[in-house]
């Protein structure tokens, strides 16, 4: 299913929900035409859509319409996860020439958060191949400087890597990360490469290459030290280092790295991250901390961090919340609280039905194995039955969105 058709399904559902919530039946018939969608994806945005469309979009994405469609205003506060639709808007100094790339990046990011990488990957690769790549070396129409164009290429290539990873294609993801790192060498700003190395470290953790994950995090920190301070990115890299140490059972090193990540993030509000840096906020750090503490066996602290991550992450971040719910359920089971874990498991299954993430499916399957140890509990047996049915549904969903074979 193509991204427009997928978007339409979710938009129609949101329109019906808004019509019910607002007591306005006319909202249920609001729709976005294909031509309008194509203009949005191309960055050809002139003002806000009509009020009814804005209302549905705000309900669907959990973002104000001004953030979804407007440029970053001068003097705006450092972006947070709730306003991440303006991420990178300073990439071209708010230049109008860069608006299409920025609009596309944020459209892809929002769709990925809501639906998962399986829905969005092909569109990102197509945009890279047909729009960004020709402008990298073109001399015919040089409206954008090299730093700007290569910056867009780095961010979008890394985005493709994450989407491929989300869809279970880690070899493909590794190739995209490698290309993003090579492209980043063309930039004078070292943070772009450090940001890519953070992503590569995270991928290494997911593929059980723990020593490589630690090395990549340290390489990112070394590269970052060559430029101006970027506390948010430093926090993310230290968090990746902490996770690697925890999996290696290096308790002291893991705790020190986690403490350093917290100290760095506390300074993030004073130094806004450059446009090349992926968002990393308190909710993200709490989520990583929960995984670190769970691996270290510090269950009470892990539960607190997992609950904090969910409290900080709004409902529009379906996939992020789903991973947080998996972690919290694992902690509760490790604490011997199957009833509480069941409640979290039910919320997880209800929320993740339309998220096309093979990574999430794998995590749910592992969680199902953890629940199986408490099969004597009636609520657990009922949940296990639901998890089996959900797994079958997700296999069909993900099978229809299989990524193409070979390099992209």
Detailed description of the structure:
There is one protein chain. The protein is mainly α and 408 residues long. Among the domains are: 1-65, no CATH class; 314-408. The protein is built from 18 helices and no strands. It has helices at 3-22, 34-41, 51-61, 65-69, 99-115, 117-136, 146-166, 170-184, 191-206, 210-224, 231-247, 251-266, 282-295, 299-312, 318-334, 338-351, 358-372, 378-399. The longest helix is centred in the last third of the chain and has 22 residues, at 378-399. It is globular, with a radius of gyration of 21 Å. The model is unreliable at 72-99 and 140-144 (pLDDT under 50).
Largest sheet: none
In whole angstroms, how far apart are the ends? 19 Å
Query: How much helix is in the residues?
Result: 55-70%
- Given the structure, what is the number of helices? 18
Q: What integer is the average pLDDT?
A: 82
List unreliable stretches of 5+ residues: 72-99, 140-144
Portion in beta strands: under 5%
Report the C-alpha radius of gyration, rounded.
Answer: 21 Å
Large-scale geometry: globular
Class computed from helices, strands and strand pairing: mainly alpha
Write down how many β-strands occur, each being a DSSP E stretch of 2 or more residues: 0
| Series of H and E elements | HHHHHHHHHHHHHHHHHH
Protein name: XRE family transcriptional regulator
Biased composition (Low complexity): 82-93
Organism: Streptomyces desertarenae
Region (Disordered): 67-96
């Amino acid at each position: 299913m193509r991204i427009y058709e997928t978007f339409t399904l979710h938009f129609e559902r949101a329109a019906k929900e808004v019509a019910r919530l607002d007591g306005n039946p006319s909202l249920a018939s609001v729709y976005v035409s294909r031509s309008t969608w194509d203009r949005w994806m191309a960055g050809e945005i002139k003002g806000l859509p009509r009020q009814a469309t804005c209302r549905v979009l705000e309900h669907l994405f959990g973002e104000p319409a001004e953030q979804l469609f407007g440029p970053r205003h001068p003097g705006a506060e450092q972006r947070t996860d709730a306003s991440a639709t303006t991420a990178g808007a300073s990439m071209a100094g708010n230049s109008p020439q860069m608006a299409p790339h920025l609009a596309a990046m944020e459209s892809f990011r929002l769709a990925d958060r809501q639906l998962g990488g399986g829905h969005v990957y092909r569109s990102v690769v197509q945009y890279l191949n047909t729009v960004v790549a020709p402008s990298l070396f073109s001399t015919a129409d040089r409206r954008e400087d090299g730093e700007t164009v290569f910056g867009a290429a780095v961010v979008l290539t890394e985005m493709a890597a994450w989407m491929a990873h989300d869809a279970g294609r880690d070899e493909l993801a590794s190739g995209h990360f490698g290309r993003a790192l090579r492209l980043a060498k063309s930039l004078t700003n070292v943070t772009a490469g450090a940001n890519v190395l953070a992503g590569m470290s995270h991928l290494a953790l997911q593929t059980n290459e723990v020593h490589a994950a630690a090395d990549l995090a340290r390489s990112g920190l070394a590269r970052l030290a060559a430029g101006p301070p970027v506390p948010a990115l430093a926090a993310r890299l230290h968090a990746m280092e902490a996770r690697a140490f925890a999996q290696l059972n290096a308790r002291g090193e893991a705790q020190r790295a986690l403490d350093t990540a917290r100290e760095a993030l506390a300074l993030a509000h004073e130094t806004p991250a450059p446009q090349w840096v992926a968002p990393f906020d308190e909710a993200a750090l709490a989520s990583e901390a929960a995984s670190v503490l769970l691996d270290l066996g510090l269950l009470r602290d892990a539960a607190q961090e997992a609950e904090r991550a969910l409290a900080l992450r709004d409902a529009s971040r379906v996939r992020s919340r789903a991973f947080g719910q998996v972690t919290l359920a694992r902690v509760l089971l490790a604490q011997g609280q199957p009833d509480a874990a069941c409640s979290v498991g039910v919320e997880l299954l209800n929320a993740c039905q339309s998220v096309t993430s093979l990574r999430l499916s794998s995590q749910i399957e592992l969680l199902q194995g953890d629940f199986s140890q408490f099969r004597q509990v009636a609520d657990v047996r009922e949940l296990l039955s639901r998890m089996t049915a959900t797994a079958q549904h997700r296999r069909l969903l993900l099978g229809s969105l299989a990524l193409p074979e070979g390099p992209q």
